[in-house]
Design a protein that fits this description.
This protein has 175 residues and is of the alpha+beta class. Helix content is 30%, strand content 22%.
């Protein structure tokens, strides 16, 4: 080849950069939404898993097991704000307080990403030895910065069953 140089022309480079720019402009917002949706799903599943575990342990052990909001990973906060963490423990006397001799079964750390996890009235859910949660039914609202349209509802029935749904479909709004 008689001294010919190979490479990109300025026009080829500009076309390539334009295509990359368009792909990034379309892809990045979708990726952010993907991350937010994944975070909400993971956090909702974590709450559901802990509640189902507490119910299972109550049945297996034949005792009351309580799940409550906690700020120190050792005691119940008595708050309807669950985003700072929550615990599950054997609640022999059913008072909703971690007493001496009552074993802590699991601890969950605060929810991440600036998300909130709150209820209107539930400070705890106590499962009886038969797996029921009489009087502790309610809805936990898991929200992120996008608001109610993307938020998740974690619903606990009197029978102790836990399910998730879209928050707006349950008739609730984010705080």
């Amino acid at each position: 080849m008689n001294g010919m140089k190979t490479g990109f022309t300025l026009i080829e480079l500009l076309v390539t950069l334009s295509i990359v720019g368009i792909l990034l402009a379309v892809g990045v917002p979708n990726f952010v939404t993907f991350i937010q949706n994944n975070r909400l799903a993971t956090q909702a599943n974590d709450v559901v898993t802990l509640l189902n575990y507490a119910r299972s342990e109550a049945i297996k052990r034949g005792v009351r097991v309580t799940v409550c909001s906690s700020t120190d990973s050792a005691s119940c906060a008595g708050s309807t704000n669950w985003e700072n963490g929550f615990i599950a423990f054997v609640d022999n006397d059913g008072d909703g307080v971690v007493d001496i001799g009552e074993a802590t079964l699991q601890v969950r750390q605060p929810v991440e990403g600036g998300n909130t996890l709150r209820t209107n009235s539930l400070t705890r859910v106590t499962y009886l030895a038969n797996g029921f949660s009489n009087g502790f039914n309610g809805t936990l609202r898991l929200c992120d910065a996008r608001g109610t349209a993307s938020a998740r509802a974690i619903v606990v029935s009197n029978q102790g069953r836990v399910r998730t749904n879209n928050l707006a479909a349950e008739g609730f709004a984010c705080p």
